[in-house]
């Protein structure tokens, strides 16, 4: 049985009757860049996140970049983040001329370990940038408490976590600002590139609104040198339609995750831990296995697609070799990257496909050895 990690064609078939008239509306109004669909999406996504503001942008990377600038990051500042992430998190820091300072992860959650943050703080630390990796909220109370104590601001990388809750509160409003990505594979994906910054802070929102549009505060009134980071009208129209489905799609992801956990209990593999007070939105359902190559091959032989998020931590990427971190510097992140494997978890999987994946993984992993003695 074929099980893809994603099925955007099936999703389009479901949504086509709503999408096409919405795109037609954008064309009729010629509102190709920003415009009324984007403005409506900004209001709806801010409501969804429970934040005062949402500023729609061209990509999640742009949201991280402008978020860092809005929080005052300048050349030679330091930004604390996790090396267990997509490269864009670190790139945004580099765009500001600042330096990413990596802190290792908590192996139980794959997120930044708050117990290791304080020793990485220096007088140059400007921002802490936790990632809600795979849709699982980072330890925000501890991170916020450290930030408050040292007068350091917090930017959430919520690119993978639309709708996730931490202690009952949606991500996006847990720090000073948050960056979202709407890349097509995300839980809420555009039909092209897209991103947004959410915040409760009027000044941050005002800065990001101008910065995305060449620093303009009024037409041809450029207060500072900005960027072209505007969202396209088509993306606003598509995202509004998909946002209305996000609750149902997320529930289905969570249901699949519960079923995987049930079947895989006792198998020779590890699964990140969910805090019962929080709500993970399962952008990815990952397992950790010692025999990853053989697991991938066995699943591929059964037509089950898998992906590795991510095979190499950021500090070991050639792009960041100038930082000079040898292997072994962040051992938990490195171990995670050596063992991690993402199983299909998209909302259109059937019960049969879910059972097939779970049983195939269980068989390939084998049983956990009973404790000796
Ligand atoms: C954790 C994380 N941060 C940032 C990004 C960058 O988002 P985008 O691809 O929209 O620029 C992504 C996704 O690609 C991501 O997964």
* Number of structurally distinct domains: 2
What helical percentage do the residues reach?
25-40%
Structural class: alpha/beta
Bulk shape:
globular
Q: List how many beta strands DSSP finds.
A: 13
Q: Write the CATH homologous superfamily of the largest domain.
A: Type I PLP-dependent aspartate aminotransferase-like (Major domain)
CATH fold-level name of the largest domain: Aspartate Aminotransferase, domain 2
Q: What composes the largest sheet?
A: 7 strands, mixed
Query: What proportion of the residues form beta strands (DSSP E)?
Result: 5-15%
Describe this entry's structure for a reader:
With 373 residues, the protein is α/β, with parallel strands linked by helices. 38% of the residues lie in helices and 13% in strands. It is built from eleven helices and 13 strands. Helix 8 runs parallel beside helix 11 (351-365). The mean pLDDT is 97. The structure holds pyridoxal-5'-phosphate. Pyridoxal-5'-phosphate (PLP) binds next to helix 3 and helix 4. The site of pyridoxal-5'-phosphate has 14 residues, from helix 3 and helix 4.
